[in-house]
Write a structure and sequence with these properties.
This is Hydrogenase assembly protein HupF. It comes from Clostridium sulfidigenes. The chain is built from one helix and five strands; from the N terminus they run βββββα. The chain is an alpha+beta fold. It has a five-stranded antiparallel beta sheet with strand order 3-2-1-4-5, with helices on one face. A hairpin with a 3-residue loop joins β1 and β2. The longest helix is centred in the last third of the chain and has 15 residues. The model has no long low-confidence stretch (mean pLDDT about 90).
Length: about 70
């Protein structure tokens, strides 16, 4: 089973971005995502952003993770 986690883009660099997952911030490879803008949400799998998603979908998914795992 593969799991992708939504994260919010905080800063954009060449080929990667600083992405926030709850209280955790990580540099993520975003080279596959075109026209990425600070504040957008991306799905991240194994350290690589695989697609953009809407904020509403990101919040719904994060709430499901919180219910399953507690705050992360």
């Amino acid at each position: 089973m593969c799991v992708a986690i939504p994260g919010k883009v905080l800063e954009i660099y060449e080929g990667n971005s600083l992405v926030e997952f709850g209280s955790l911030r990580k540099r993520i490879n975003t080279s596959l995502i075109e026209n990425l803008v600070v504040g957008e949400y991306v799905l991240v799998h194994v350290g690589c952003a695989i697609e953009k998603i809407e904020e509403k979908e990101a919040m719904e998914t994060l709430n499901i993770f919180k219910e399953l795992m507690g705050d992360f």
